[in-house]
Amino acid sequence: MKACLVAFHYPRAPHREEFIARVHRVAEVFRAAPGCLSAECWVNDDAVVSTVRCESAEALDSALSVVTAKAGSDIVFDERESRPREIFQLMSP
């Protein structure tokens, strides 16, 4: 069963481009993790949205561990964001 992570980020205007670059760097780390099918960055006027698709929930959990170890503090919510992230983990039926 495939697993997906969708995260809505709300960077403050002065940090928007920096934040988009940050999401792209983290996506590269996700894509290198075993079982990761895709990792992408999407934007609209209000949010930067990151999506990650993996072969299974276990692969997603493993990819998250890899990202936490390699990207470290660059994935933590901080003052560059105007409000908390909204994160959804989805499973294919």
Give the class-level CATH name.
Alpha Beta
Order of helices and strands: EHEEHE
List low-pLDDT spans.
none
Structural class: alpha+beta
> Which shape, going by the Cα principal axes?
globular
The total of helices stands at 2
Cα distance, first to last residue?
7 Å
Account of the 3D structure:
It is a single chain. The protein has 93 residues and is of the alpha+beta class. The chain has a single domain (3-91), classed as Alpha-Beta Plaits, CATH 3.30.70. Helices cover 34% and strands 30% of the residues. It has two helices and four strands. The chain has helices at residues 16-32, 57-71; strands spanning 3-9, 36-43, 48-54, 86-91. The chain has a four-stranded antiparallel beta sheet. A hairpin with a 4-residue loop joins strand 2 (36-43) and strand 3. Helix 1 (16-32) crosses helix 2 (57-71). The mean pLDDT is 92.
How is this fold's topology laid out?
Layout: E1 3-9, H1 16-32, E2 36-43, E3 48-54, H2 57-71, E4 86-91
Antiparallel strand pairs: 1-3, 1-4, 2-3
Short overview:
With 93 residues, this protein is α+β, with helices and mostly antiparallel strands.
Features:
93 residues; alpha+beta; Alpha-Beta Plaits; four-stranded antiparallel sheet; 4 strands; 34% helix; globular
